[in-house]
């Protein structure tokens, strides 16, 4: 199985399976001299860690990360990247492979079971193997290090819709994201989500979600036409996350309902001699290149395929069957996808920053004389 790496200059390779002894990754191309602490990487992993509320899988994984190479340690514990590959490991400690024995010969509808089997002639039924969202812990660790490449960029993810419940943007409070188990910026919507997901969870079903990630402080000039577009790489990175079925930049699909006048991000010169955008329908990217505005992306996560409701399927032997998936599963996998989305955006931005620096050096701040 190839294609376990993403990125160009900041390149991340992941390895491991859901029910194997460990998962981990290697970051190749990290610049030397980046300073970070292991507890910063661990803090990012803790936000994604399972079993923190009744609304996520009850699998108990501490997700403790170990850095194996690519850094030097100072006396106070600060790690400094050496420019060589950074390898890290996260052990699996709470696998229950026997929970999946009943589905070893049957395909879960909506899951990657059938696709893996038809491609490779085998599949790891124990939690899905490489197709499990367990792999995304590695991406979160890599994203925490990627964020150090662009220290002036702030990346914030939020769950803006769960099933039929969406947020009221008039109630947006960024501080609220860390106060509820859904990473939701609207306290009133979060309260409704709790009741809604309790019903979904108790019925043994699942539901999807929409996550929004905003990167502020992104410098202008990142991305390259025609086949190195920043928004194209962001879309590919987010689509690579398990269960993601759609990505949009800025207005996205809603732009199809706008007129040219409504969609245009008009500009005026600011007092500092730099242009000011009067709107951000483009989501901070024009022609595949960042404009200096906030980069805004959203992605849709489908409902978890492992549910208790009986579903019609077939077996590996070509027989009709009915399947019920027991075990520990997220009733809304979109919740823990929030820190994963943040991490993937960080990795893409770090990669594009290094590509820009390697191609043209430091980009001009604006195309106007000072």
From TrEMBL:
<comment type="subunit">
    <text>Homotetramer.</text>
</comment>
<feature type="binding site">
    <location>
        <position position="287"/>
    </location>
    <ligand>
        <name>FMN</name>
    </ligand>
</feature>
<feature type="binding site">
    <location>
        <position position="328"/>
    </location>
    <ligand>
        <name>FMN</name>
    </ligand>
</feature>
<keyword id="KW-0285">Flavoprotein</keyword>
<feature type="binding site">
    <location>
        <position position="48"/>
    </location>
    <ligand>
        <name>NADP(+)</name>
    </ligand>
</feature>
<feature type="binding site">
    <location>
        <position position="54"/>
    </location>
    <ligand>
        <name>NADP(+)</name>
    </ligand>
</feature>
<comment type="similarity">
    <text>Belongs to the chorismate synthase family.</text>
</comment>
<feature type="binding site">
    <location>
        <begin position="242"/>
        <end position="243"/>
    </location>
    <ligand>
        <name>FMN</name>
    </ligand>
</feature>
<protein>
    <recommendedName>
        <fullName>Chorismate synthase</fullName>
        <ecNumber>4.2.3.5</ecNumber>
    </recommendedName>
</protein>
<comment type="pathway">
    <text>Metabolic intermediate biosynthesis; chorismate biosynthesis; chorismate from D-erythrose 4-phosphate and phosphoenolpyruvate: step 7/7.</text>
</comment>
<keyword id="KW-0456">Lyase</keyword>
<dbReference type="Pfam" id="PF01264">
    <property type="entry name" value="Chorismate_synt"/>
</dbReference>
<keyword id="KW-0274">FAD</keyword>
<keyword id="KW-0288">FMN</keyword>
<feature type="binding site">
    <location>
        <begin position="130"/>
        <end position="132"/>
    </location>
    <ligand>
        <name>FMN</name>
    </ligand>
</feature>
<keyword id="KW-0057">Aromatic amino acid biosynthesis</keyword>
<dbReference type="GO" id="GO:0004107">
    <property type="term" value="F:chorismate synthase activity"/>
</dbReference>
<comment type="function">
    <text>This reaction introduces a second double bond into the aromatic ring system.</text>
</comment>
<dbReference type="InterPro" id="IPR020541">
    <property type="entry name" value="Chorismate_synthase_CS"/>
</dbReference>
<dbReference type="InterPro" id="IPR035904">
    <property type="entry name" value="Chorismate_synth_AroC_sf"/>
</dbReference>
<feature type="binding site">
    <location>
        <begin position="302"/>
        <end position="306"/>
    </location>
    <ligand>
        <name>FMN</name>
    </ligand>
</feature>
<dbReference type="InterPro" id="IPR000453">
    <property type="entry name" value="Chorismate_synth"/>
</dbReference>
<keyword id="KW-0521">NADP</keyword>
<keyword id="KW-0028">Amino-acid biosynthesis</keyword>
